[in-house]
TrEMBL record:
Residues 18-128 form the Dihydroprymidine dehydrogenase domain. This is NADPH-dependent glutamate synthase. It comes from Candidatus Limadaptatus stercoripullorum. The lineage of its organism: Bacteria, Bacillati, Bacillota, Clostridia, Eubacteriales. It is an enzyme of class 1 (oxidoreductase). The keyword Oxidoreductase applies. The keyword Nuclease does not apply.
Length: 457
């Protein structure tokens, strides 16, 4: 008889409770649930789930280790391939990655909850002392301390390289620190994983803006190699009338004020707009995070998206949580004009209804305006979450840097740019993507750096 036990889903706090604070939505698996879920893994010989993991975590091995030896042994298996397991266990879109390929998905009670198990292991494994490897004689500068930079730095440090990370902000972590909200990814979790990397010997220098306080050529002169992992932090806007009104802001600005500067706290020195009726434009993870953050700051929130629910790019879990929390979705709707009051503050937005036409070049059905469908949504804050591109600062301070029209750095799949000893990866190279793809890029670049720069005997 085939085992058809049902998948254990992550528990979540009641929506009516969690919208009152910024604490984490899910408390994670209990030990009993984690072991029950681990017991569902069939230890498939060919491990199809691993096909879906961009950093190649040995999934059946870590789950077996959890079952038989406990969290510490499982953590040792995971950390051989993944330098930020507590982060990935929380924010990776597992439903499109490892869990999508799990053999149990269709007919055997649902995929094993691999992400929730990874999180359980990372949260429960006792900290072990990190041994610093013997120096290998290579020195590397890493620009940016997001998942790409940290992952690259960690693999280099594990191989004995001397690694210095240059980070523009006053805290390390990139989007993990300033973008993804506390209620999805507590900052204590990010800090703990970064401390573990520092224990490997990675030096992180905050408040260092490459292109201002130090230039790329200077870093290349003083290091054997430089990795650019500076992300894609420049927000895109709608380009419609009224976008410069007070109360219109990017999701990046809202989230940075709240996450990095802790503006949600009563004692915070950084202010944040606290609209009563907030419109968020967009439907990716960033839009969901902005909408759910505005909700926790006390607003009624309407999310406006020009396609239908099926095309919403955010994780299914984030969409479901947003709905539970009372976010209203206006789908097949596009803003065309933002209105202000006599003092210059936003007071509403005119939208049009859309319908979906034939698929365009990207394979997605094109939204088409429905004639005569204009209507107004009153609001006192409007948040734009339409995506981001790389910040042009590094390019402007070093015009030789090879970039595409969109401003992303040109490099091959192993992060090698056309300039010798200069590497890139993560959102800086691909445009806005995911944590695990950025980490995978950082790892491949670390491998390339070690191959290219190994001191000759
Ligand atoms: P980043 O994380 O952007 O890090 C780049 C770092 O470089 C930053 O710290 C920046 O300050 C620094 N930097 C930039 N310029 C310079 C300079 N000139 N000098 C020095 N330092 C510099 N992905 C998921 O997988 N799951 C999610 O749930 C998810 N949610 C998201 C929610 C939000 C709000 C956002 C914005 C993104 C989300 N993503 C999610 C996407 C994911 O976070 C990114 O794809 C990932 O962080 C990219 O990593 P990175 O290291 O390339 O860049
Ligand atoms: Fe376990 Fe699913 Fe991977 Fe098979 S595919 S090893 S059941 S997690």
């Amino acid at each position: 008889m085939m085992d058809k036990t049902l998948r254990n889903a992550l528990p979540a706090r009641e929506a009516s409770e969690r919208i009152k604070d910024f604490f984490e939505v899910s408390p994670g698996f209990s030990e009993q649930t984690a072991l029950a879920e681990a017991a569902r893994c069939l230890s498939c010989k060919n491990a199809p789930c691993m096909k879906g993991c961009p950093v190649g975590v040995h999934i059946p091995d870590f789950i077996a280790a959890l079952r038989t030896e406990g969290a510490q042994a499982a953590a040792a298996v995971i950390s051989a391939d993944n330098n930020l397991p507590a982060v990935c266990g929380r924010v990776c879109p597992q439903e499109n990655q490892c869990e999508k390929f799990c053999i149990r998905r269709e007919k055997l009670g649902g995929s094993v909850s691999i992400g929730a198990l990874e999180r359980f292991v990372a949260d429960h494994a006792p900290e072990t002392e990190k041994r610093r490897p013997a120096p290998c004689g290579i020195s590397v500068a890493v620009v940016g301390s997001g998942p790409a930079g940290l992952s690259c730095a960690a693999d280099l440090a594990k191989a004995g390289a001397k690694v210095t990370v240059f980070e523009a902000l006053h805290k390390a972590g990139g989007v993990l620190e300033y973008g993804i909200p506390e209620f999805r990814l507590p900052k204590a979790v990010v800090d703990k994983e970064i401390k573990a990397l520092e224990a490997l010997g990675v030096e992180i220098r905050c408040d260092e803006v490459v292109g201002r306080s130090v230039t790329l050529p200077e870093l290349m002169e003083t290091h054997d190699a430089v990795f650019i992992g500076s992300g894609a932090g420049l927000p895109l806007f709608l380009g419609i009338d009224g976008e410069t009104l007070c109360g219109v802001l990017s999701a990046n600005e809202l989230l940075t004020r709240v996450n990095l500067m802790k503006a949600y706290r009563e004692d915070a020195v950084t202010p944040v707009p606290r609209g009563k009726n907030v419109v968020v434009v967009g439907a990716g993870n960033v839009a969901m995070d902005a909408a759910r953050t505005a909700r926790r700051l006390g607003a009624e929130v309407t999310l406006v998206y020009r396609r239908s629910r099926a095309e919403m790019p955010a994780r299914a879990e984030e969409i479901a949580h947003a709905e539970e929390e009372g976010i209203k979705f206006e789908l097949l709707t596009n803003p065309v004009r933002i209105h202000g009051d006599e003092k210059g503050f936003v007071c509403g937005v005119t939208c049009v209804r859309m319908r979906l036409g034939e698929p365009g070049k990207d394979g997605r059905r094109r939204p088409i305006v429905v004639e005569g469908s204009e209507f107004d949504i009153p609001c006192d804050e409007l948040v734009v979450a339409l995506g981001t591109t790389p910040n042009p600062l590094i390019k402007s301070s070093y015009p030789d840097l090879p970039t595409t029209e969109k401003g992303t750095v040109i490099a091959d799949e192993n992060g090698r740019t056309p300039i010798p000893r200069l590497y890139a990866g993560g959102d800086a190279m691909t445009g806005a993507a995911t944590v695990i793809l950025a980490m995978g890029a950082g790892k491949r670049a670390a491998k390339a750096i070690l191959e290219d720069c190994a001191p000759r005997a």
